[in-house]
Amino acid sequence: DAWQSPPPLQLEWLPQQEQDKKTSSMWQLLAESGIPECTHEAFASFTPQEFGCVATDLANLEGFLDTLDFFAEPSRVLVTSRIRLLWKKCQGMSDPVSSSALPGPAPQPQHVQDSGWVEMFPKKLGTDRSWRYIPWKLRLSEEQHEQQSMRRPSKAPRLESLLFDDVPTREIPGPSIGKCLMQELLNLQAYAIALCGGAHLHTLKEMNRRFVNRCYERYTAESFLRGPTVEEAQLADQRLWRQIALLCNEEQWSMDEAIHEVVVVRSELQTLLMPRP
After folding, report:
1. Which of 67, 78, 133, 254 could form a disulfide with 74 if both were Cys (CB 3.0 to 4.6 A apart)?
2. What domain of life is recorded for the organism (predicted)?
């Protein structure tokens, strides 16, 4: 008998087997991540490595999340959080594949590798040790910074938002603010400076105490005087810290010495926050 080639069904079986292997590993990750089965079909065409490359950052991932349909249980916030964690996990699986295909850079010295960042998105730090004034609207704690970042719209990012950093800010009400809010704004910077070793915390808090007491000092109606508004208080704080920064940056004073010179010796705080008619 003449030799016969295998039937076409046998040739089609191998790609189907690879496809089953491909989807099974992805569905296993979906099940481990706790993502509902109703959304699994949207991930069926991806391998874990391919899904790790579906977006370059979390902002671009929002465009993929907008295409998914979510049901009442569990909540959309919980499901999207799990998908983000799955994307980060798949991104870690895709990195070795892409790096092995390209020639790697020359090995760095051991002390450089040990001091390198291990975070996916490292903080932007510089070597500049000079001090600059920080406006009140930019004084945010880490928790407040994350809350402001989560309020971004779920629409696709514009070109300018990809090219430039969108710095989160806080709203400062006017013309006056509560005493607790002013203390929070001043002490937030004080703790940050103390943690960085800029000045002693007691020195910074004593300066803030005098600042707040002067802003909220009461005057009789017969004097026709008032305390500074929130805009005037911000301007006074800015001028105080500019004088302190001048002594620290150009005269090489310590910050504790500069604060004592400006606040106590020169009495600039009393002058800038004097009562207004």
Report:
1. 78
2. Eukaryota
pLDDT in tens, 206-226: 999 999 999 999 989 888 999
CA gap 88, 78 in Å, rounded? 16
Tell which of 96, 122, 153 closes a domain: 96
Question: Is 106 within the bounds of a domain?
Answer: no
Q: In angstroms, how far is CA 176 from the centroid of its own chain?
A: 29
Tell me whether residue 35 is in a domain.
yes
Q: What total number of domains does the chain contain?
A: 2
Checking phi first, is residue 105 left (phi over 0); if not, alpha (psi -120 to 50) or beta?
beta
Q: Which residues lie below 8 Å from residue 193, measured CB to CB, with a gap of 6+?
A: 199, 204, 255
Q: Which two tokens stand for residue 257?
A: 């010495």
Collect all residues with Cβ–Cβ distance below 8 Å to 158 and sequence separation of at least 6.
none
Q: Give the predicted TM-score (pTM) of the model.
A: 0.50
Look-up of token digits 């103390």: 194
